[in-house]
Design brief:
By secondary structure, the protein is of the alpha+beta class. The chain has a single domain, classed as Fumarylacetoacetase-like, C-terminal domain (Fumarylacetoacetate hydrolase, domain 2). 16% of the residues lie in helices and 44% in strands. The protein has an eight-stranded mixed beta sheet. A five-stranded mixed beta sheet has the order 6-17-16-13-14, with no helix packed on it. Strands 5-11 form a two-stranded parallel sheet. It is globular.
Length: 233
């Protein structure tokens, strides 16, 4: 059994903010979670252009080492074939679910021959703020995801769209139980899937991502740099 990974977050409620250290025991990265079949097919084709095989069924839940969760402002990745993906994040704390945002940073070269292995290759950066699911559930489909990639000093919009393009948290939790035989529970983290990249998947030197709540007028964001490590064999 894992000893877990402890990270500290700002727990932001409408009534105020508190700080809490949370121990995580399991990390699930949900893939192919598109609610819009056309958009999901676009993402499948997008990855297929890189050599990633079409999934046999969807969604898929990849178990990733919980040690890959990161709150740091820099990650290290081998070579220059990795890239980020903005995703909403579900966090189980006691009997409650909280919502955050993260990046499923993935090695694209490894992904062409082993998606599960590729998910283990890179850290998964998380923003430092969580919201109670109870506060966003009534207007969940109005939440928005956005990311920017910085390449050679130039910042460009990389992804943008509503969380409504992905399966809802309730659907993901239900499908996790149905396909993996396990409930989503306290100490669990789930990354909820992503949308296609604008202009195609590319690596970057810096990745910025955010989750926007236009109803309550708030935003969670994070920025991290990617330090590329040499490949010497």
């Amino acid at each position: 059994m894992t000893n877990g990974v402890k990270l500290t977050f700002d727990m932001v409620r409408e009534s105020g903010t508190s700080e809490q250290s949370i121990t995580f025991d399991r990390l699930f990265v949900a893939g192919w979670t598109g609610r819009d079949k056309a958009k999901m097919e676009e993402h499948i084709v997008e990855l297929g252009a890189l050599g990633v095989k079409r999934p046999g069924s969807v969604p898929v839940f990849y178990r990733v080492s919980v040690d890959r969760l990161s709150r740091r402002g820099t990650i290290q990745a081998p070579g220059d074939t990795s890239s980020g993906e903005v995703e909403f994040v579900l966090v189980g704390i006691g009997d409650d679910v909280w919502v955050g945002v993260g990046s499923d940073h993935t090695d694209r070269e490894v992904e062409t021959y082993g998606i599960t292995v590729s998910k283990q290759m890179c850290d998964k950066p998380l923003a430092g703020t969580l919201w109670p699911m109870a506060e966003v559930a009534p207007h969940w489909d109005q939440l928005e995801l956005r990311s920017y990639a910085v390449e050679k000093g130039k910042r460009r919009l990389y992804q943008e769209g509503p969380v409504a393009s992905m399966l809802s948290p309730d659907d993901l939790v239900a499908k996790l139980r149905a396909t993996e035989g396990t409930p989503f529970q306290s100490g669990d983290v789930m990354m909820g899937g992503t949308m296609p990249a604008i202009g195609g998947i590319k690596s970057a030197e810096r990745f910025e991502f955010e989750l926007i709540d236009p109803v309550l007028g708030r935003k969670i964001s994070h920025v991290y740099d990617i330090e590329t490590l040499p490949i010497n064999g």
